[in-house]
Amino acid sequence: MMSFILADLRRFKGGALAVIVLIALSVALSVTVTLQERAVRLGSARAAEKFDLLVGAAGSETQLALSAVFLQPSPLPLMSGAVLAKLAADPRVDFAAPVGFGDSEAGHPVVGTTTALISALSPKLAEGALFTRLGDAVVGSDVPKQLGAEIKPMHGLSDIGGETHTEIVYKVSGRMAPTGTAWDRAILVPIRAVWQLHGMAGEQDHDHDHAGETPEAAASEEHDHEHAHVDADAAIDEQFDAETPGIPAVLIKPKTIADAYRLRQDYRGKTTLAVFPAEVLTRLYATLGDARSLLLAIAIGTQVIVIAAILLVTIMHIGARQRQIGALRAFGAPRRSVVAIVWGELLLLFLAGFVLGILLGYAGAQLISASLTATTAVRMPVEFAREDISLAGWFMALAVLVSILPALLTLRLSPARALKA
Questions:
Q1: Strands 187-190 and 108-113
Q2: What letter would DSSP give residue 237?
Q3: Which residues of 188-203 are buried (b: 16+ CB within 10 A; e: fewer)?
Q4: In the predicted model, is pLDDT for residue 330 greater than 50?
Q5: Least confident of 62-66, 326-330, 402-406
Q6: Left, alpha or beta for 370 (phi > 0: left; psi -120 to 50: alpha)?
Q7: 187-190 vs 272-275, strand pairing mode
Q8: pLDDT band at 371 (very low <50, low <70, confident <90, very high)
Q9: What is the pLDDT of residues 45-91, one digit of tens each?
Q10: For a disulfide at 184, which of 130, 140, 254, 342, Cβ 3.0-4.6 Å?
Q11: Nearest 10 degrees: CA dihedral of 254, 257, 263, 268?
Q12: Whose CA is closest to 180, among 285, 50, 92?
């Protein structure tokens, strides 16, 4: 019987191929939406889990998390450097690492921070060593720079034509192991080098505190002063006091979970904001989930239309094959065999389209994830989950039921009438 079904499908291979492609495209849309939404959730969650607590100036929680954790270029208001000094001395804090943005090199963000954050992101460097001088830099795993390579920071981003700083040239001293986060594309330098380069060496150098301003406002004031030359050979100093310059964010590693919640409570006020990055992502997932539901509804609607069209074409096809069906019945083929042949042909088309759709959907999700990873450096794993098995089961059951309807219509055809048609 299978050989007969395959031979019959080869006779009508054009129509069969069209049915398979229609089914495959509708299934691929659902698979791509499901896998991509899951990849974004998994990738962003794994990237955020390296950061327990985030403190910044009062403002948007979402923007603070996106800028500090995912290094998305966006102005953040600066908070008083005294907050960093207080956090660094807090017995509940394992480490408090400031982050300073504003520069880039060949499209890679240059981030000022401390060795404590680098050690937290990459406990063991892939090569080289942590920075010990103001002119040292540690690059992320995706930055195409060799040890000893020079880095000339540019103010802002290269695509908006910022000016290249001439006051310092960093040299790569180490490379982090892959982290699967946006920091794989970053260039990390000593925070004090960033402050000195931008004329923010401390209250002893400036009588204006940048706290509460955005980096753009602070930068506009920088142009009223000459950028200070930075001694690249000077030793780094990671001790902070009340005269520390304003900073956009501090990444914190609390000693215990209880300490994390107490710190978040203590630093949620009129001037500062403390957030759990994972908590911010949860709210974003809710929005993402709404978008996924909408796209899945569109995909399901598309599948319903495709199935209806296939049923219509199949019924018309059966009508055109009345003589063939009548001949089978006239030569003694039992009714159940005729029903099985028609049902088997349609079910085989559904299964072929389903398998092709899964492959196309998986490939589509992989391409989208690769594109997003290339842009953000956040690894977005495309993988199937256990709940996908139940969805596949439902599709199989639906395919079996939908395929049986046209097959049952053949029971209404009498051999004599079919041969006269």
A1: parallel
A2: -
A3: bbbbbbbbbbbbbbbe
A4: yes
A5: 326-330
A6: alpha
A7: unpaired
A8: confident
A9: 777 778 889 999 988 888 888 888 888 877 788 898 899 999 999 99
A10: 140
A11: 130
A12: 50
If DSSP codes are grouped into helix, strand and coil, which group holds residue 401?
helix
E-assigned strands of 255-319?
Answer: 272-275
Tell me if 174 sits within 8 A of 128, measured CB to CB: yes
Q: Which residue in 316, 310, 344, 340 sits closest to 328, CA to CA?
A: 340
| This prediction's pTM | 0.68
Give me the count of residues in the chain. 421
Neighbours of 370 (CB within 10 A): 12
For 11, 228, 322, 333, 340, the CA distances from 325, given in Å and listed in that order, are 15, 91, 5, 9, 12
Instruction: Specify the DSSP class assigned to residue 58.
Output: S
Here the tokens at position 35 are 């896998």
Local confidence band at 156 (pLDDT 50, 70, 90 cut-offs):
low
pLDDT at 329 over 80: no
The answer to whether residue 355 scores a pLDDT higher than 50 is yes
